[in-house]
Amino acid sequence: MWAALLIPRRPSGALDIKALAREVDFLRNQGLMRVVLNGATGEYIRVSRNDFRRALAVVQESIGEDGEFLCGIGAADFRSSVALGRRALQAGARAVLLPAPYFFPYSQDDLQCYFRAAARELGGTILLYNLPRFTTPIATETALALIGSSPFIAGIKDSSGSLAILRELTVRKGEHATRIVGDDSALEPALREGVCDGVISGVAGVLPELIMGLWRSAPLEQPALRLREFISWLSRFPVPWGLKWVAEWRGIAAAEFAWPLSEERRQAAKEFQKWFENWWPVVEKELRPVEVTR
């Protein structure tokens, strides 16, 4: 189980290095020793190379020798992604997450060329990062063709919300492909079907107790219900706004945004925070006695 990190910022837009270190420390104190930097939860398209270098150094130091980290390397062009990937692997990232290019639509042939070239250039472990809400979707056949075709393309983090690729990998690739759920809403069905090896969770970054409760619980019903309740609120806001408000409420990092918030959004945020303040103490109490069986 991996927690996707927010990348906290100050009102000026500059990185909040102290808050990022506090975020990793918070997760470690909760017993979660695996984190992921610079994915969609971290708003990777906002991250400059200098931001990346500084944030990577914080995570590398804060996670400690007994922790592990993965690193997203999405960027506006191929060379930038490769440069980020090299730095991450040199810093000790267990693997890098490579999303498809964003903004413009691309063909599946374009994606295969892109991922294969990155694997050749990096020479380190890559997980495909399927992020169809923000990038060109990776088709099932494309994922199957890429995984195993290079010794460096080890599997996929699928944030589509669908289990189609993970199911096919289970049938066709078995233990030779790493199958990671990247959308919290798909975690419960993936666990029930046995089609995932792990999860990279944005929710775990601010509510690690909830995702650990689901991951370790048998039966799944109650923590799964609570996760659905939480996601129903998150889905009302752009990614990762709801997570930022929860991080602020828990004293992890101030909620700062790339865009100004309308009055309607501010009112919705107040409603969400009021709901959360009543909901979380009940859920937190429910999760305490969860028996570890998985």
Which descriptors apply to this entry?
294 residues; alpha/beta; TIM Barrel; 46% helix; 12% strand
What is the compact description of this entry?
Strands 1-2-3-4-5-6-7-8 form an eight-stranded parallel beta barrel, surrounded by five helices.
The share of residues in helices is 40-55%
What Rg is obtained from the alpha carbons, in whole angstroms? 18 Å
User: Total number of β-strand segments?
Assistant: 8
Q: Profile the largest sheet.
A: 8 strands, parallel, barrel
How much of the polypeptide forms β-strand, as a percent range? 5-15%
The level 1 CATH classification is Alpha Beta
What would you call the structural class? alpha/beta
**Bulk shape:** globular
Q: State the end-to-end CA separation.
A: 12 Å
Oligomer: single chain
* Mean pLDDT rating: 95
Unreliable sequence segments: none
CATH superfamily: Aldolase class I
Tally of helical segments = 11
When the domains are counted, the total is 1
- Do you know the CATH architecture? Alpha-Beta Barrel
CATH topology (fold) name: TIM Barrel
- The topology string of helices and strands comes to EHEHEHEHEHEHEHEHHHH
Query: What's the arrangement of strands in the largest beta sheet?
Result: 1-2-3-4-5-6-7-8
Explain what the structure shows.
The chain is of the alpha/beta class and 294 residues long. The protein has a single domain, classed as TIM Barrel, CATH 3.20.20.70. The chain contains eleven helices and eight strands. An eight-stranded parallel barrel has the order 1-2-3-4-5-6-7-8, surrounded by five helices.
